[in-house]
Amino acid sequence: MELDKSLVSGSMALLVMKLLEEKDLYGYEMIELMKNRSDDTFHLKAGSLYPLLHGLEEKGYVEAYEQEAAAGKPRRYYHLTKRGHAALSEKEQAWEIYARAVRRVLRGGVCLGEA
Amino acid sequence: MEKPETIRSYLDAVASQIRWKRARPAVLRELKSHLEDQRGSFAAENAVDAERRAVEEMGDPVSVGRELDRLHRPKPQVGPLLAALLLALSCAVLRIALTNGWAAHLRADPLRTGLAVALGCGALFAGYFLDVARLAGRAVWVCAAALSAGAAAIAVSPVIHGVTYAFHYILLFYPAVFACWAYFWRGRGWHGFAFSALGGAALCLLCAAASQLFGMLLVFPALLGVLLLAAWNDWFGIGRRAALLAVFGVAVPGAAGAGFFAVRAAARLLPRMDDPAGVAAILRSVVGAARWLGEGVWETTGYSLGFEQIVPGFGDNAFPVALLYRLGWLPFLAAVLGVAGMTLWLLLRGLRLRTQLGRAVALAVGITLCTQTACSLAWNLGFPLFDVPFPLLAGNTATVLNLFLIGMALSVFRTECIAQDLPCPPRQSAPAP
Questions:
Q1: Torsion of CA A47, A51, A52, A53, to 10 degrees
Q2: Cα distances (angstroms) measured from residue B145 to each of B152, B200, B323, B429
Q3: Helices (H) and strands (E) in chain B, counts
Q4: How many domains are contained in chain A?
Q5: What phi, psi does B48 have (nearest 5°)?
Q6: Does residue A21 lie within any of the structural domains?
Q7: Segments forming the whole domain that contains residue A17
Q8: A111 in a structural domain
Q9: Which of B45, B186, B235, B429 should we substitute to test contact with A (largest number of A Cβ atoms within 10 Å)?
């Protein structure tokens, strides 16, 4: 099933930052990792990823550095900063609230007995 | 617009949307690397049109370019530029106004002072539009030029009051030159560290050759500061701990040499402090005669001659004490705090920069301005060890050079969004190969 792009775009920063929480990655790796982790659901275009990463860098959430990758080519790795970690946990909380609310609405509203 | 089918045409299409030319190479390098990876991946799947498919995967080049253009724009530093210009201009006006009534040869020449402000304005903008990253890429030439200029100044420049005149100005650039030099040797291991330290030693030796105690006081701590920054961030790839130990290893003999030189010079300078008819005594009496607001009470100094006949160099390096005596402590403090505040702001803002080069250059410029400010303030308040101009407040040539340095620091802030460091040593969190 083709996924509505607008559903993905709003949460892309959250997903990218979540990937960077584990280890430093370069752009191409992020796209591949995202594809694998989402069972081929998220096909992130590189043309959207780089502006997103540069925007996060501008905000101080990630920082970039160049280093040679396994193939010996220099790559621009992204690293989640302390500020980025804080922003990520905020975004995760906000996403949880949003997702719970969407699920509730889809199920027909809040039940009085629901925890 | 025709759809690009090759990596080259895709990158050209993206580049055409990014208006700031200086931002293009860094952005395109990353996109090119991605496209090559993608092409390699398709080729590994035996795809015949691997390059075209890789380009397709990237998305529309125009929208990508537009988005990157929005993110990569210079950050104009209008406020700090105006503040620096306003400070220089108001200091020049003060210099002309306060020395106006004095004898012709003692007055601040309005023409020369005006010319210095005009040239300083040009120097500020020249520094502001300077590509510091390019300068660091040619650090060998920059350092060679700085050393040659210093050596030539020592050889041919006149010596006034024991100071090599032209060298006195050239050394103001040495900390910034060293920042570029040390940065150039990044990632080159112990070799890099050794060459970096050797460059610093050469700059310090020139100061010693010129008998410039002020030069040593300015250059040595600035060099040490930049080297410590380099070691802390592991510029050379030898590990933070080893680099810090190496810096201390270099700094101890360096400090011992500088200390030996300083003790000899101080033995010559310190007796002037206790001389009742010396500069120190005169300056302290003037400071004692100053009021909070308005002209000081000259009678309390006990001198029969007037202020302008007594205070040495009042129109130039001693202008801050002239300002203190003529207008009082409050205007004096306002002028001093204005310059000191700007210097401190440059230093603190610079240390928060993302790029290592930006931090090093801002640190070098900050230390240069701070040292001049501190030495000049001490001289004017009656501790006359180093007769140097107060940044922007005194001296015509010094004003031009200091405005250039301020412009250089602002240039680093302006280009922060596109600035990228050269390949640096591995981090702990980097992926395993």
A1: 110
A2: 10, 14, 38, 40
A3: 20, 2
A4: 1
A5: -80, -30
A6: yes
A7: 6-105
A8: no
A9: B429
Cα distances from B371 to residues B374, B377, B378, in angstroms, run 5, 10, 11
Name the residue facing A73 among B33, B68, B429 (closest C-beta).
B33
Q: Which helix (H) or strand (E) holds B133?
A: helix B132-137
3-state class of B296 per DSSP?
coil
Q: Which two tokens stand for residue A50?
A: 């780089």
Q: How many CA atoms lie within 13 A of B334 on its CB side?
A: 11
**Minimal C-alpha gap between A112 and chain B (Å):** 47
Enumerate the residues of chain B whose CB falls inside 8 A of the CB of residue A75: 33
Contacts of A55 in chain B (CB under 8 A): 71
The enclosing domain of A94 has a CATH number of 1.10.10.10
Distance CA A35, CA A3 (A): 13
Q: How many residues are given for chain A?
A: 115
Identify any residues that bridge with A78 across adjacent strands, giving them in sequence order: A25, A64
- Asked if residue A1 belongs to a domain, the reply is no
Block residue for tokens 């010693």: B208
Strands in A74-80's sheet, in edge-to-edge order, are A25-26, A74-80, A62-68
Tracing tokens 């083709």 back to the chain, one arrives at A2
Kindly list the residues of chain A whose beta carbon comes within 8 Å of any beta carbon in chain B: 23-29, 45-48, 50-51, 54-55, 57-58, 63-70, 73-77, 79
| Residue B399 CB contacts under 8 Å (≥ 6 apart), including other chains | B88, B91, B92, B116, B117, B120, B389, B391, B392
Q: Give residue limits of the domains in chain B.
A: 7-71, 78-414
- Where in B34-178 does DSSP place strands (E)? 159-160, 163-164
Q: Would residue A59 count as lying in a domain?
A: yes
* pLDDT per residue as tens, chain B (433 positions): 567 778 999 999 999 999 988 888 888 989 999 999 899 989 988 888 889 999 988 888 999 999 999 988 888 999 999 999 999 999 899 888 888 777 766 777 888 889 999 999 999 999 999 989 889 989 999 999 999 999 999 998 887 766 788 888 999 999 999 999 999 998 889 999 999 999 999 998 888 887 677 888 889 889 999 999 999 988 888 999 999 999 999 888 878 877 777 777 677 666 666 676 677 888 888 888 888 998 888 777 777 777 777 776 665 788 888 889 889 999 999 999 999 999 999 999 998 888 888 999 999 999 999 999 999 999 888 887 788 889 988 878 999 999 999 999 999 999 876 656 554 544 444 443 3
* Helix (H) or strand (E) segment spanning residue A15: helix A12-22
Partner-chain contact A65 B431, CB within 8 Å: no
CA–CA distances in Å: residue B174 to residues A44, A100, B403: 48, 61, 15
CB within 8 Å: A47 and B426: no
